[in-house]
């Protein structure tokens, strides 16, 4: 839809003008000023309007450190008195996997887990999968702690293959 407003601006394209989808869906281009502003404004609006106190960014590494700083700065301007929410306490976290067209900061300093910061946090997928169960690399029926593995007899549990730590 945004492509109808400004063609080839809001989406990330390759050198031939094809839509990139390294995130497993059509990628937006937050490196473009107005796309970054759209993301920032949407987060601040949702925090203010719906009193959301935390945001999870799926594949946060497809955003840049500058985008996350802009989001944090916009949230910091929200106050209890004026907006009904203390923006300085809104929690930001996401997946910081370093891959795809943004790998190794190829398009700018991406918000990957390689970057430590006081204003955003990263998901640790091994902890998440241990609690929830399953993972993209195992049988989705595999139980985690929160889904019953502590109550299910070991003989009935679906065992996940051990993945190398990296």
What's the helix and strand layout?
Blueprint: H1 2-5, H2 33-50, E1 54-57, H3 65-76, H4 80-83, E2 91-94, E3 121-122, H5 125-132
Helix pairs in contact: 2-3
Order of helices and strands: HHEHHEEH
Strands of the widest sheet, in order across it, are: 1-2-3
Structure classification: mainly alpha
Count of the separate structural domains? 2
Strand content: 5-15%
Q: How would you characterize the largest beta sheet?
A: 3 strands, parallel
List segments where confidence is low: pLDDT < 50 over at least 5 consecutive residues.
none
With helices defined by DSSP (H or I, 4 residues minimum), what is the helix count? 5
Q: Helix content range of the residues, please?
A: 25-40%
Could you explain how this protein is built, in words?
The protein is mostly helical. Helix content is 28%, strand content 6%. The protein has two domains: 32-122, no CATH class; 124-166, no CATH class. The chain has helices spanning 2-5, 33-50, 65-76, 80-83, 125-132, and strands at 54-57, 91-94, 121-122. A three-stranded parallel β-sheet has the order 1-2-3, with no helix packed on it. The mean pLDDT is 84.
């Amino acid at each position: 839809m945004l492509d109808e407003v400004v063609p080839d601006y809001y989406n990330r394209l390759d050198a031939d003008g094809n839509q990139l989808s390294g995130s497993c869906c059509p990628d937006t281009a937050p490196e473009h000023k107005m796309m970054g502003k759209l993301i920032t404004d949407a987060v601040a609006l949702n925090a203010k309007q719906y009193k959301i106190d935390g945001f999870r960014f799926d594949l946060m590494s497809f955003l840049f450190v500058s985008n996350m700083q802009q989001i944090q700065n916009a949230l910091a301007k929200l106050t209890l008195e004026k907006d009904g929410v203390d923006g300085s306490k809104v929690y930001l976290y996401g997946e910081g996997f370093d891959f795809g067209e943004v790998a190794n900061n190829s398009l700018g300093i991406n918000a990957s887990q390689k970057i430590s910061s006081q204003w955003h946090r990263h998901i640790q997928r091994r902890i998440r999968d241990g609690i929830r169960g399953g993972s993209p690399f195992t049988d989705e029926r595999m139980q985690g702690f929160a889904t019953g593995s502590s109550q299910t007899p070991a003989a009935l549990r679906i065992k996940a293959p051990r993945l190398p730590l990296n």
